[in-house]
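Intended use. Records like the one below are meant for learning the mapping from a protein sequence to its folded structure. Do not use them to infer anything beyond what is encoded.
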Amino acid sequence: HGRSSRSHLVMSLTLSTRDVATGLLQRAGKLSLVDLAGSERLKRSEAVGDRFKEATHINRSLSALADVVTARERKVGHVPYRN
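Structure written out for the chain above:
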């Protein structure tokens, strides 16, 4: 969101090692780093107007991201990327 002061970051790093003598792949792994914008507690934030809307969108976004992570972790057939 171009006007928000908050954003999420998901970065995946794939690591692999090869045998120097044969060139064969020995090990591979993937590391995912996730930095989430903070979830807003609407009652405690006392947000109104545009701030309230932004907090609502943040919470919805975090819930959607949690759905994706859960689906990927469980290796289900459908991953809800567009929730």
